[in-house]
Write a structure and sequence with these properties.
The protein is an alpha+beta fold. It contains 20 helices and 15 strands. The strands form five sheets. It has a four-stranded antiparallel sheet, sandwiched between helices.
């Protein structure tokens, strides 16, 4: 069977302005608003690029912002920085590209070489920019081929804590949190006694209880300007009653500081192996109905969410039991107790917000408006969550390593739990387990035994066919690609002609995959997906897994937009050819 292809011209994507762009075509400002209410504007007119390129990148960027692919400002800010670096690089070229279709393979190769990809920043600059650009169907195929070349990930520098170091971190975090908990508990008991009428009116304890009640309801005590006319100080009545007007004497009686909340965050990560963002955004744990009523053992259910790069969200529920001082659930009970007053303040003014970790800032603003500073949500004088910067500051003050959250999480999930925590098994193994020296030392023989099998499996499941704009003169058409050297196949003796199945064309370096082949291969990919749903899993893995994996690799290299267009261009002839191929109606 022979079928000559022609050079396919991909349809250009018209400039459609997403809702986050203004109505004026010259306005290329993109606004990214997260579901937490954080907002950031990005002016693509500031990029050192031609106007057409600015508009194209603005559309791609805005699509990511509105599609839900980017759920935090940290992602959009990082991408913006990388695009600025790309713009500066392209502006120094002899002929800077006017738009996406003007990018060349040489330009992109030079961009890759100009970055220090052995470091995380350089690696991210290349990977992030090419991921964004591949969504534009006008991107030339020769550029896609360069983008598809493997780029080694930087070596992971972080390692799990050694046992003694890990114990020191947990001990320091417990000490910080315990001190805060006892302080808040003592003053809460006094406040409750005041509510119960246990103190004689106008007595000193009654007056302190009244001050604590005011503090719990408003987050602060009455203030007035001091002698300098600039600093607002606690009024003398309350300052004298409480022993001073400093935070130690006033609001710290009922509320955590930022670093004390960070210490709780460190405990949550080192106890449960939570991701830092998952920990910071954790909603208030709910007690399982009927737990603790008779036995006194309380069970908490934690609803966890982790945003995944390019893959939406990971949702997970875990139950933890408080059955004593050393149990995991006791940490939850204590955290609920320590944050109770702050959470009540937030719930009264912003009931839509549900966070466990709430702390009082040092500032004295007490406005009720909810606003956002970066990724940090504030309600009046209260901050929500515990970020990596706060945990790092806490650790430095304790004389401990600053990357306490990331390394602590790795220690729990890799060394202790030995299972993924808000990650896929593949990410857990590849990113966390394999680079970890403690794991390597314990598994040298196992790794050595499996390395040969791993290499062979990788060869079978990676696309080896070459991407091309069109079949070349002299190529022979096959059922799935075009062949540049039929007589010298890697699957059969040289000079005898290839007798391998057409399913192996994608595994052959002699094959050429051009746009004319995309619809047929996209249909083959879908057909193998359908077979997967009806065949016995073991049978499908044995017969179709390798071919499906190569097509999946092709789909990733071409990009989602090109693949979608290929699916829409599937012809009746493509369907017939794939049907014959899967049913064994013709051989190579």
């Amino acid at each position: 069977m022979s079928r000559r292809g022609h050079k396919a011209t991909l349809p250009t994507t018209p400039f459609r302005r997403p809702a986050v762009l203004g109505d004026d075509p010259s306005d290329v400002v993109v606004r990214h608003t997260t579901k937490q209410g954080s907002t950031r504007a990005y002016d693509f007119g500031r990029l050192p690029m031609a106007p057409a390129m600015q508009r194209s990148l603005a559309v791609l960027f805005a699509t990511k912002c509105t599609s839900g692919a980017w759920t935090s400002l940290r992602t959009s800010e990082g991408t913006w920085r990388h695009l600025h670096a790309l713009g500066e690089f392209l502006s120094r070229q002899e002929t800077p590209p006017a738009d996406v279709p003007d990018l060349t393979a040489a330009m992109w190769s030079a961009w890759r070489l100009s970055r220090r990809t052995k470091a995380q920043t350089g690696y991210d600059q290349v990977m992030v920019t090419q991921l964004l650009l591949r969504a534009d169907s006008r991107l030339p195929h020769e550029v896609r081929a360069v983008m598809a070349r493997r780029l080694l990930e930087p070596k992971v520098q972080e390692r799990a804590f050694e046992p003694d170091e890990f114990r020191r971190i947990k001990t320091a975090a417990r000490r910080t949190f315990r001190s805060a908990l006892l302080r808040i508990r003592e003053n809460t008991e006094l406040l409750n006694a005041w509510h119960n009428g246990d103190f004689a009116p106008e007595s000193r304890k009654w007056a302190i209880g009244e001050a604590l009640d005011l503090l719990a309801r408003t987050g602060d005590l009455p203030r007035r300007f001091g002698p300098d006319g600039k600093t607002r100080q606690v009024v003398p009545h309350y300052a004298k009653l409480l022993g001073g007007g400093a935070p130690d004497h006033t609001w710290k009686r009922l509320f955590l500081t930022r670093l004390e909340a960070a210490a709780i965050g460190v405990l949550l990560v080192t106890e449960f192996g939570f991701n830092g963002t998952t920990m910071s955004e954790m909603p208030v744990p709910r007690a399982v109905p009927d737990s603790g009523e008779k036995s006194g053992v309380r069970v908490y259910r934690l609803e966890l969410e982790k945003r995944r790069r390019h893959a939406g969200h990971h949702f997970e529920s875990r139950n933890f039991t408080d059955h004593g001082a050393d149990s995991a659930g006791r940490l939850i009970s204590d955290a609920l107790e320590a944050t109770a007053h702050a959470r009540a303040y937030v719930a009264d003014r912003a009931p839509e917000i549900d966070r466990l970790l709430v702390w009082r800032s040092k500032g004295n603003k007490s406005e009720a408006a909810t606003n956002s500073v970066g990724e940090l949500i504030r309600v009046g004088p209260f901050g929500l969550g515990a970020g990596t910067d706060a945990a790092a500051l806490w650790a430095r003050k304790q004389g401990l390593p600053s990357k306490v959250l990331r390394r602590g999480r790795k220690t729990v999930n890799v060394v202790h739990r030995r299972e993924p925590g808000q990650n896929t098994q593949d990410t857990h193994d590849r990113v966390y387990v394999l680079p970890e020296p403690q794991v390597q030392e314990a598994a040298v023989e196992v790794i050595a035994d499996g390395v040969t099998d791993a290499i062979e499996a990788a060869r079978r499941t990676v696309l080896r066919a070459q991407l091309a704009d069109a079949p070349q003169t002299g190529d022979q058409e096959t059922a799935t690609a075009s062949c540049s050297d039929f007589e010298h196949s890697p699957f059969t003796p040289s000079g005898t002609g290839c007798r391998a199945s057409f399913m192996l064309c994608t595994a052959c370096p002699n094959a050429r995959v051009a746009p004319v082949h995309h619809p047929r291969l996209a249909h083959l990919h879908a057909a193998l997906e359908n077979l997967r749903s009806v065949l016995d899993p073991a049978l499908w893995m044995a017969d179709w897994f390798d071919a499906h994996a190569r097509l999946e690799d092709l789909r990733q290299r071409l990009g989602a937009e090109v693949w979608k267009q290929a699916q829409q261009r599937v012809s009746d002839m493509d369907r017939q050819i794939i049907d014959d191929l899967l049913n064994g109606h013709f051989d190579s």
